[in-house]
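so my prof wants the structure for this chain in the tokens format not the other one, which i didnt know existed until like an hour ago. anyway here's the sequence
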Amino acid sequence: MEIHHAESLICHEKRVGLPDPDQRADDQPDDRDAPSKAARTGDSVAQQLIDEVSDEIVITANAAIRRLRLTRSDVHVVLGGVLRGANQKMLGRIREGIQAVAPKARMLKLEAPPVLGAALIGLDEMGASEAARRRLRTALTHRRLSTG
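here's what i got, hopefully its the right format
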């Protein structure tokens, strides 16, 4: 699927239930899996969107793997963000695409929320103790962040 106009993408995002970026985060429905649900019901446009996103992830990961000359290594590719909940078909497409370039590559799901890395860097900059880093890891979990 080629999208030639931003309006087409925006219309499709609303159709498959992707969040409106102009809406406040706390007002947005938690329907991140809407494209996958639509694809499972036979929505070919939703499936094309998922396939294209998967392919872009593969292109980006493979570019990094090649630039770092890791094609023959057992490189770990960490999937985070919305990919934590990606369906097996999407993950399989990503795995196959990456392993075509780096056969020993392993896909790992990020278990910590991405904000944890930024917060740990902040503690490093402040010269915080290891105890502070442990408290932060305990406090910043997906579960605790989702319950407010």
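also thought this was worth mentioning. The chain has two domains: 6-109, 115-147.
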